[in-house]
Amino acid sequence: MLIALGVTGGVGAYKAVEVARGLQKRGHDVIAVMTATATRFVGPLTFEAITRRRVITDQFEPGANADIEHIALASTIDLLLVAPATANILAKFANGIADDFLSTLFIATRAPVLVAPSMNTQMFSHEAVRRNLETLAARGVRFVEPGEGYLACGWIGKGRLAEPEEVVAAAEAVLRPEGPLRGRRVLVTAGPTFEDVDPVRYVGNRSSGRMGFAIAAEALRRGADVTLVAGPTTLEAPAVRELVRVRSAREMRDAVIGRADAMDVAILAAAVADYAPAERAAQKMPKGDDTITLVLKKTPDILGELGTRRLSSGRGPLLVGFAAETEDLVARASAKREKKHADLIVANDVSRVDAGFDVDTNAVTVIGPEGAQALPLQTKARVASAILDRVESLLSARPAKAGS
Ligand code: PMT
To answer: I want to staple 184 with a disulfide (CB 3.0 to 4.6 A). Which of 77, 264, 367, 386 is the partner?
Structure first.
């Protein structure tokens, strides 16, 4: 979702950087709108680097009004979040004063507005500020309560900007009060596995983790309680409830099997090594002969094990596997679905340069009980969304796990 993050001139402005990061980690797109005084506390460049978007600082800078930007932005954002909000901006919002970009955006947008006030204790309790807060609350503006503690001015009391995690959680609650996957536990695997040959070498693959991370982020967006089991990747993971970092297929297997019974859904997007070195050398293997032979043995088949367990016990999560193929895509993927007893299998033609490993886009065919659905080339975020649509419709017949 697109969030306009309004930053006003308070000491807590530095915390807004963490708020922007937290929102991004939950899969949101953030555009920072800074007032002139905010730029005296934190440089716009910091927000530009974090959000990877131009920071709006001045309503009257050349170009800013070419497409009447505050109106365009006002109609596209899903949330206007202001953190920190000074007494000054609250007064402008409450009284309809529109003399800069942020105050104009507030009046122009019909998106929900969430405000995190931050000011000195005496100011916060002043009659004028209280009245402005009440006026705004009556108009549907929501607030993140300021925290208590030491304020920059030396006072102790209420007025400090709430901690970034609280602000992010409040934004999430406004954005998805009732996600369709609320109450569902979803486990996602992502990334490659590395199978060590010796202390410096390993057998691995080109998976970046993007596909699995996109699924975890989308499940989060839909309100699920997400556990992400990730192989070694350099990407920043979405802010799931539980992130389990693993290295090898064996570690991934243990992490998944140990949690599977508590899950409603398991989506295995990781590219797990099928074979690993039979033995890991304790010391770095010295260079010797012109050729060497590496003996590999089969790794545990995690999806296969989940499928077999469910078949024998009659219990277990809804299973979604992926199939990375370079030929006979649908036939091979369908055979994997049957062999591993998965509900859905996502057939991925990894011979394409614009799909599969280490790119932002994917083109897949989702194969399930009611047939195959081809999804054309699109972002992995959109592919994730289509997969979760299928998951949701299969889940509708199953009660949520107790306690989730
Ligand atoms: O990470 P990205 O760069 O975004 O790339 C995404 C992807 C190409 C890795 C992803 O879209 C994908 O296709 N993942 C599955 C890769 C794979 O291992 O496919 P497979 O056909 O070998 O395995 C079939 C299924 O069994 C997969 O769900 C896999 O996670 C699972 N498996 C495989 C081997 C094993 N030992 N245990 C398993 O559970």
So the answer is: 264
